[in-house]
Each structure stands twice: as structure tokens, then as C-alpha cells.
């Protein structure tokens, strides 16, 4: 890919700040830099604490989606899960009500400062709302050590879990948890061990997971994520990074191009925002998202515009990450 010049990127950049209905991974306002490329709108939104080396892969993905034609879709809509942040059990029903028609829910667990009883209460509340036919998966974001994961999965398995995402931080721990909990029949999914690893295939090679989570931005774009899934040889679930509707369309393009897709994807997260850049936003209806390019609404782009100092911060980050991509070819 020939990289567009930094001046070209700056000319087509818009920085937005979207308020969230519920605090999620410590975030109450999600910031993103959107770019209008020749192939359509695209998104650069690494979390603010990520360093430039990590964020550069997100920029490669953004440029790929905005400047290059994308792999052909093999499906026209994507089933998605509701995403439940680490809220109190009493607030679960209100969160789930934001997701229209989703038959799968993903629940955050192992939140710092909370206990296993908080997780049990939250997941039980989700199971109660979803009913016995609903699918319930959990995501610990690597927050448990081995014994905590072992104990928690044993305790939560009674609630009939579809899978456990990243119960522990390392590949070795994932392999050990998978071994210790195998008799429970709860599959282990790897997320951070794919998207934040120097080698995204190490977890598959180690036999440490039953499936992998793939995200288009951190993995450098749709085409690169497809290569990783093919090389891993494991079932994949496409998830968002709490993207705006523009970045979610990139995730939907990845999900649409996967040869096999047996799970609902984590692409319903626009439902966690109180405002988005597209009208209508790319939120699930009847539990699915349509596949296709999303255009922002001009008035919403203005209404969501970040403050001048945050715009300057994002444009400086864009410049540094662009320089990193130029340097690495
Ligand atoms: O997968 C989902 O349901 C939503 C996306 C999600 O959970 C997420 C969003 C932002 C950062 C990390 C994660 C994660 O999967 O760990
Ligand atoms: Mg995850």
C-alpha cells in the first residue's frame, strides 16, 4: 500500500468525542479521529493510553479501510452480542434493553475493585433477562490469576457460559486454565493474547484457546485480520474496540469477509453511546448489523466535535503514527 501523505490525512480528519451511557473500561467519553478517504470514511481510535508503536497498527488499519478496496463480503448482515459493562446486577436489565433483539450477551467480569460475588450476581442477572435460550459469554480482560480463574469459571459455569474470553493475561496461563476447566465444557477465547501480542498466532500454536477474538484496528486492518484467522485455524469472533459507527463498519466488513462465522460478534457497542456520528447509528436491530460503508452526518460531526486541545492532541498523534508507518515501510 502506498501511504497517503500526512497533509492529505490532516485535510480529511475530524476528531470527535462521544459520551457513553455507562462507564466502560474506565471510559466515559470515547474519542476518535475519523478520516474521509477515497474509498469512504474510516476510523483511527487507539485508546488514549496506548503508545505510538501500538497505535501505529490502528492507523495502518484506518488507512487500509479508507484508501484501499476491501475483501469481498460473503454475508450481508452480522449477528451481534449485547455488551454488559461491569455494572451492578440491579442495572443489568437497563443495559440489556439498549440492545435490540440480541440473543447473545457478553458480560464483563474480574473488574478491579470488585469480587467474584459481584460477577456471580451480574452474570446471574444477565442469564435471568436472556432466558435459558440466550447465549451468555463473559470477558475477564486477563484480570484473574490462575487460581482465581479456576474458581470463577467453576462457579460461573452453572449459568451455562458460551465461552470465557481472556480469563488470564498470558498464553501459558490460558493453556493451564483451559486444561483445568476442560471438564466443564466452557470454551476459552483469546482476545488480548491475539491483539496485543507480538505474535498473534502464538496462542493458537500453543493450543491455549478454543477460539480467537479479532479486532480490525489493532490487527492492522481487515485483510491482515483475515490472514491471522486463516493461519490460526480456529473459529473467530469479530469484536469492536468501542468504535464509533464508522469503525464498527470496518469490523462488520471483517466479519462479512470471514469464510466461516459461527458466533455472534461484539459489534453492538454503539448502543453504549448516547450520541454517534451517523444517522441512524450502526446499532443492532433485531440482533443484527447491516454490512456496508457508513457515512457520518455533517450536523452530528459538528455536534460531536472534540475540544480544540483534544483535536490538537489527536492530530499530533496522527502525525507521529504516520511517521512510524513511513519509517517501517
Ligand atoms: O466484544 C464486545 O462485546 C464489545 C467490545 C469489548 O468488549 C471491548 C471494547 C473495548 C476494549 C476491549 C474490549 C474487549 O473485548 O476486551
Ligand atoms: Mg475482550
TrEMBL record:
Domain Mandelate racemase/muconate lactonizing enzyme C-terminal, first and last residues per copy: 85-187
Keywords: Lyase, Magnesium, Menaquinone biosynthesis, Metal-binding
Superkingdom of this protein's organism: Bacteria
Pathway annotation: Quinol/quinone metabolism; 1,4-dihydroxy-2-naphthoate biosynthesis; 1,4-dihydroxy-2-naphthoate from chorismate: step 4/7; Quinol/quinone metabolism; menaquinone biosynthesis
The enzyme's E.C. designation: 4.2.1.113
Active site: 108, 215
Residues the entry annotates as binding Mg(2+): 139, 165, 191
Catalytic activity: (1R,6R)-6-hydroxy-2-succinyl-cyclohexa-2,4-diene-1-carboxylate = 2-succinylbenzoate + H2O
Classification via Gene3D superfamilies: Enolase-like C-terminal domain
Alphabetical list of InterPro entries matching this protein: Enolase-like_C_sf (IPR036849), Enolase_C-like (IPR029065), Mandel_Rmase/mucon_lact_enz_CS (IPR018110), Mandelate_racemase_C (IPR013342), OSB_synthase_MenC1 (IPR010196)
Listed cofactors: a divalent metal cation
CDD domains to which the protein is assigned, alphabetical: OSBS
Enzyme class: lyase
Family: Belongs to the mandelate racemase/muconate lactonizing enzyme family. MenC type 1 subfamily.
HAMAP family to which the protein is assigned, alphabetical: MenC_1
Function, in words: Converts 2-succinyl-6-hydroxy-2,4-cyclohexadiene-1-carboxylate (SHCHC) to 2-succinylbenzoate (OSB).
Name of the protein described by the UniProt record: o-succinylbenzoate synthase
Organism: Microbacterium kribbense
Amino acid at each position: 500500500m502506498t501511504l497517503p501523505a500526512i497533509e492529505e490525512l490532516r485535510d480529511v480528519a475530524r476528531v470527535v468525542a462521544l459520551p457513553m451511557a455507562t462507564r466502560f473500561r474506565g471510559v466515559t467519553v470515547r474519542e476518535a479521529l475519523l478520516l474521509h478517504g477515497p474509498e469512504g470514511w474510516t476510523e483511527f481510535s487507539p485508546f488514549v493510553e496506548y503508545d505510538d508503536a501500538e497505535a501505529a497498527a490502528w492507523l495502518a488499519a484506518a488507512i487500509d479501510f479508507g484508501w484501499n478496496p476491501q475483501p469481498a463480503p460473503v454475508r450481508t448482515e452480522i449477528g451481534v452480542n449485547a455488551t454488559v459493562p461491569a455494572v451492578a446486577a440491579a442495572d443489568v436489565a437497563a443495559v440489556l434493553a439498549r440492545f435490540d433483539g440480541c440473543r447473545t450477551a457478553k458480560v464483563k467480569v474480574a473488574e478491579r475493585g470488585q469480587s467474584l460475588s459481584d460477577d456471580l450476581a451480574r452474570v446471574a442477572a444477565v442469564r435471568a433477562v436472556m432466558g435459558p435460550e440466550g447465549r451468555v459469554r463473559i470477558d475477564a480482560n486477563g484480570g484473574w490469576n490462575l487460581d482465581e480463574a479456576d474458581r470463577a469459571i467453576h462457579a460461573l459455569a452453572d449459568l451455562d457460559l458460551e465461552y470465557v474470553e481472556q480469563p488470564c493475561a498470558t498464553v501459558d496461563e490460558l493453556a493451564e486454565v483451559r486444561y483445568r476447566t476442560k471438564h466443564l465444557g466452557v470454551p476459552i477465547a483469546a482476545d488480548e493474547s491475539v491483539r496485543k501480542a507480538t505474535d498473534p498466532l502464538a496462542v493458537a500454536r500453543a493450543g491455549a484457546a478454543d477460539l480467537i477474538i479479532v479486532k480490525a484496528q489493532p490487527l492492522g486492518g481487515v485483510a491482515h485480520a483475515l490472514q491471522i484467522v486463516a493461519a490460526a485455524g480456529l473459529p473467530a469472533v469479530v469484536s469492536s474496540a468501542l468504535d464509533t459507527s464508522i469503525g464498527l463498519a470496518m469490523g462488520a466488513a471483517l466479519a462479512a469477509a470471514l469464510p466461516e462465522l459461527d458466533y455472534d460478534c461484539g459489534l453492538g457497542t454503539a448502543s453504549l453511546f448516547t450520541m454517534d456520528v451517523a444517522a441512524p447509528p450502526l446499532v443492532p436491530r433485531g440482533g443484527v448489523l447491516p454490512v456496508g460503508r457508513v457515512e457520518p452526518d455533517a450536523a452530528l460531526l459538528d455536534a460531536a466535535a472534540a475540544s480544540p486541545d483534544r483535536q490538537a492532541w489527536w492530530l499530533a498523534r496522527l502525525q507521529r503514527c504516520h511517521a512510524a508507518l513511513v519509517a517501517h515501510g
